[in-house]
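Re: weekly structure request thread

Next one in the queue (375 aa):
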Amino acid sequence: MVKNKMAGLIFGDSYDVELKEMLDKRTLAGIPFGARYRVIDFFLSDMANASITNIGVIVTQKYLSLVRHVNSGAPWDLDRKNSGINFLPPFNSNDVKAVYENRLEAMQANLPWLRTVEEEYILLTSCNYVANIDFSRMMDFHQKSGAVITALYTKNHQNKKDGVEITEFDVDANGVVEDCRISSELIKGLEIGLNAYIMKTSDLIKCVEDSIKKGQNSFRRDILMPAIKHGRVMGYEAEDEVLFMDDISCYLKSNLALLNKDVRDSIFAHEDRPVMTKVKDSPPTRYGENAVVENSLIADGVIVEGTVRNSIIFRGAVIGKGTVVENSLIMHDSKVGENCTLNYTVVDRNSVIHDDRSLSGYITHPFYLEYNGRV
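Done, posted below.
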């Protein structure tokens, strides 16, 4: 186990995704996932499981619900007198923009926090996917390799979408990253970078300080790529499942992928790496006399009176009598009336679908009902 050697820095905002419709009321790290979790739960759990106890979460806007969800970090044993979890909202600086637009600008603005980090190493990660990563093993790999930067990648192209900004690595047989490509097109034979990196804290601080002096604003182009050219970057493969969230279609696909036991086990069936979340004392799920449920994940506190197939239902949702929900995702506290039909639909929180409504999309173009929506 890695103990007190590594700190964590999570970028909670959206830089490489097209989920604007879901980010109107929240930041990317706060998006609900898998019936009872939020995206940040997976990253906090991965870090906590690697004995990382000093974690900064960089956010710029719409982060109130995220802060309320994480609170002091008690579910991840981060409610500590020393270190623990620190939310890092934007603030004015003489050197950087008031509100930053990318990862490097975010670190430039938060140099005061970086300088307080006492751990020798730091893990940087974004929130544009869901996975269960063993960061302890990644840290061991980093130390043994002697690399300046270790970059996390996956060979799993499933559910990754063309059209969004993608970081791709050319990794040789020894694990050395020989090249990095940033584009909107998937290239066969290249590995997908997961925007997670380990490096020495002192090295990161120096790179960020130098970037301010040089007017640089891209971590990948101005820090990562020069290190790759000098052969100082190693690649570490995430062998378990990685579920991307590039757009609303990917988001729905990734949630529905949990209905596959192999995928579900890849994320949740690690005894030494549990996924933790905020505990809510909800009542048990209630199934009506004529309820039918097939191949679905249904959280506690749900009322099902109709039929649910191949779907994900979050806490507090209500499915009315005679209603059929298929291939869909219904978020917290949303209510679907009686005799409705939903297929390939994403219903955001606190929404209401009145009786006798029919909503239908397709897996590549789901129908989306916004937060507090009414139909």
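The chain has nine helices and 28 strands. The radius of gyration is 21 Å.
Next request, please.
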